[in-house]
Amino acid sequence: MSLGVYVSVPFCRSKCTYCNFASGVFSADRMGRYVERLGADVAACRALAAEHQAEIPGPVDSIYLGGGTPSLLLVEQLKSLFLAIRNEFQVDAKAEITVECAPGTLTDNVIATLLSCGVNRVSLGVQSFVDKEAASVARLHTRATILDDIARLRGSGITNINVDLIAGLPHQTRESWTYSIEQAIATEVPHVSVYMLEVDEDSRLGRELMAGGTKYHAHFAPDDDLTAEFYEAACERLNAAGVEQYEISNFARAGFESRHNLKYWTRQPYMGFGVDAHSMLSAADGSEGIEGWRFATTDSFDGYFTAAETKASPVTTEQAIEESFFLGLRLNRGVSLDRLRKEFGDRLDDYNQVIDELIGNGLLVRTENNLRLTPRGRMLSNEVFERFIEGRSLLAVEGK
């Protein structure tokens, strides 16, 4: 089995009001220290895996630099990151190598560097093609900037491009949302990600929405029902245009599904490096009662340097089954019960009651030996996933 590599680059030109990621604006000196630390962590990863009897497979067939805005790194820093990865891992010649970029940060020099590092896929944090909406959440680009970046990427030979869109931004209307979707389709990019605005206390906009205030244009944000309507409209329009939904938030033309993200949803091994990075590896042979290991780093930038111990958590059989359901069900194709039974045997029967309940509620549908979310189930996916977790908790109480 091949390996995916994720690198967290938590640097931004400005902090978007909706953002709840571990990212921010930092000095050039701190960015340099961070890149050096990343290189050291990559070099030490095999010792960490060996300590917990976890297996690192090879070769690497996907690399993903996420953020933040990795394209803010200096050319020399980008090169050093990719060199560290290639020094430690065998990278497949046909690996999918993605870098997240904010529109307006792709200078000609940066594009040339991405190409020299083997990058063949770029994800653009567009969020909206409507300038007023983008500006209201502190995005620093315009529609013209986006289109120029896409054209220059294609001119360089990078044609595998994703654009992110967010439903529920302040000032968004049915008409403006339709415009953003139509613009994404018109660019003919092969991949589009559509997210509904998350309202929680981890972002400035989220906190203001929860408080019912007016900062950050919160009083101009559409309500939950309208945001859900926007999402459903995006699903319908993108599918009709041949950019077909394959995961709750992701749409692609045939053959352009994100290889790296598919690793997360199908529980393939990956290693993450940097602030708030996560890894998942299989347990070595002979690890009784443990299916695998998950690793996580701190979500504090300062803590990454002062208390950077990586937390390791064993994955039990019950947890592995649970993950197989709530990750696999994110995919439109769902999960194969035959495959899960081959992997977990009769332990799968413990979840029959939960499955039957969710089918009865119209949230899941079963066709032969395949289980997938219904359209209503996608809208209520968090509730579906929680039921599988609750089901495992009940089994623990019952002593199964």
If you had to describe this structure to a student in words, what would you say it looks like?
Strands 8-9-7-6-5-4-3-1-10 form a 9-stranded mixed sheet, with helices on both faces. Strands 2-11-12-13 form a 4-stranded antiparallel sheet. Strands 14-16-15 form a 3-stranded antiparallel sheet. The chain contains 16 helices and 16 strands. The chain is globular, with a radius of gyration of 21 Å. The two termini are 31 Å apart. Strand 8 (244-247) and strand 9 form a beta hairpin. It has helices at residues 28-43, 45-51, 75-88, 108-116, 131-136, 143-156, 174-186, 204-211, 224-240, 259-265, 301-306, 317-328, 337-344, 352-360, 375-379, 381-398, and strands spanning 3-9, 54-55, 60-67, 91-101, 121-127, 160-167, 191-196, 244-247, 250-252, 270-273, 278-283, 292-296, 311-315, 335-336, 364-367, 370-373. The protein folds into 2 domains: 3-262, Aldolase class I (TIM Barrel, Alpha-Beta Barrel), CATH 3.20.20; 316-400, Arc Repressor Mutant, subunit A, CATH 1.10.10. Helix content is 42%, strand content 22%.
